[in-house]
Design brief:
Layout lengths: L1 H17 L5 E2 L9 E9 L13 E5 L5 E5 L5 E7 L1 E9 L5 E9 L4 E3 L13 E4 L6 H7 L5 E3 L7 H4 L4 E4 L6 H4 L8 H12 L3 E5 L4 H4 L20 E7 L2 E8 L2 H7 L3 E6 L4 E7 L5 E6 L2 E7 L20 E6 L7 E6 L3 H6 L3 E2 L11 E4 L12 H11 L1
Parallel strand pairs: 2-8, 9-10, 9-11, 11-12, 12-22
Antiparallel strand pairs: 1-2, 2-5, 3-4, 3-6, 6-7, 13-16, 14-15, 14-17, 17-18, 18-22, 19-20, 19-21
């Protein structure tokens, strides 16, 4: 009987300890270790201070480079539980190379600190450029968010020294006319295709819309058939043809979970205000991710898998990233995340099992986004507007 009594007392003591309710959390790398924590909350905005940014990665680290992270919701709001003490709050979109913000914060045990909205604006790190188009004005959306992009010409694409200054290049629909290219057969401009291939292989990212598919897979003003002359992406990876009719696609689906969560909606109607837009007829699903579709028809695709082993190695992008590296942070639950960190912190992250390069795609290449829709002249783009904003911030 005495032994039973002692056993009951021991169990009661264990229950009391476990139900104490102390505000503790386990880091991503070590679910057993617990530390005293507080919370930091706020709202992520674009540089204009008014546009909330959903899907932004918000994280901090402790003294051992353990990572604690969350994501902003569709309204830009976030709440992160993190260890008490002085730390830096990191806000990043994409892989963190092109847009990121760092905020010093003091987290107190069992308390919540709120980050001022003036401090949680997403800073532009990247140097961005665009080629002006006749039917597309992605630069207007860039400007509306409070960011800047430099106009370059089609002829500038022939000079690798010029385009290597930039991290992102936007290729607008309608930017390959005779007036811009100086030729009726820009599909013969091998320098343009070689330079774009080298740009992406060395970490630069591209956005291309509608008729600007000719930069990717070939064609003159646009792509009129599969296996068109020119291009730098192999024909077996993507086939487009300008057979789209002027119409409104009802009930399109955002098939990428991260994109849908960031936007706060997963269906939309897309207006194609002009005919002869480029339809995606075939694509390699191992190479491209489909982000938006109508039934089985892809309308927006992305890849991080492009590389050209024959392309020369050349530095691409802003010098502001010279002391930063992009890594794959490995969490205990397997939900690995891509982050950009100061290179001085790499040894500690490597000791936790993190690896160099992004978690998906080619470790040294940039991204390519292609949309069949764009910021057309009428301005009535509806819910495709937030999608294009997402593209800008996640290239």
């Amino acid at each position: 009987m005495r032994q039973n009594y002692l056993l009951i007392m021991l169990c009661s003591f264990v229950l009391l300890v476990n139900c104490k309710g102390d505000d503790t959390v386990a880091p991503d790398e070590n679910p057993v270790k617990v530390v005293s924590t507080g919370k930091v909350e706020g709202k992520v905005f674009a540089k204009n201070g008014t546009k909330p940014i959903g899907g932004a990665l918000v994280f901090t680290t402790d003294g051992q480079s353990n990572v604690y992270h969350t994501y902003s919701n569709a309204d830009g709001g976030f709440s992160l539980t993190a260890p008490e003490g002085n730390t830096t709050l990191h806000i990043q979109t994409g892989d963190g190379k092109n847009f990121r913000t760092e905020i010093p914060v003091i987290i107190k045990k069992n308390e919540t600190v709120t980050v001022a909205s003036t401090d949680s604006k997403l800073d532009q790190i990247a140097k961005m450029a665009y080629v002006k188009g006749s039917y597309d004005e992605i630069e207007a959306i860039i400007s509306s968010l409070g960011y800047t992009a430099t106009e370059i010409t089609y002829q500038d694409l022939k000079n690798m020294n010029t385009i290597s200054q930039y991290d992102i290049i936007f290729l607008n629909c309608g930017s390959r006319t005779y007036a811009q290219t100086g030729t009726s057969t820009p599909s013969n401009d091998v320098n343009v295709y070689n330079n774009l291939s080298t740009f992406v292989t060395n970490g630069g990212s591209l956005y291309s819309s509608d008729w600007a598919s000719a930069y990717l897979v070939g064609g003159n003003t646009n792509t009129v058939s599969c296996n068109a002359p020119g291009g730098f992406i192999n024909d077996n990876l993507l086939c487009l043809q300008d057979i789209g009719a002027a119409t409104t696609y009802m009930g399109c689906t955002i098939s990428n979970t991260a994109l849908a969560t960031a936007l706060g909606f997963n269906t939309l109607d897309i207006q194609y205000d002009m005919g002869a837009w480029e339809k995606i007829l075939n694509y390699d699903p191992a190479f491209w991710d489909v982000l938006v579709q109508k039934g089985n028809e892809p309308l927006m695709i992305r890849t991080g898998h492009y590389t050209n082993p024959s392309a020369p190695q050349t530095p691409v992008g802003t010098s502001l990233n010279n002391n930063h590296i992009t890594i794959c942070h490995h969490t205990a639950n397997g939900n690995n995340i891509t982050i950009t960190i100061n290179q001085n912190a790499w040894n500690a992250h490597q000791a936790h099992g993190d690896t160099m390069g992004p978690c998906t795609g080619n470790s040294s290449s940039g991204n390519i986004y292609y949309t069949t829709f764009h910021n057309h002249a009428s301005g009535n783009i509806g819910k495709t507007g937030p999608i294009l904003e997402y593209v800008i911030l996640n290239l």
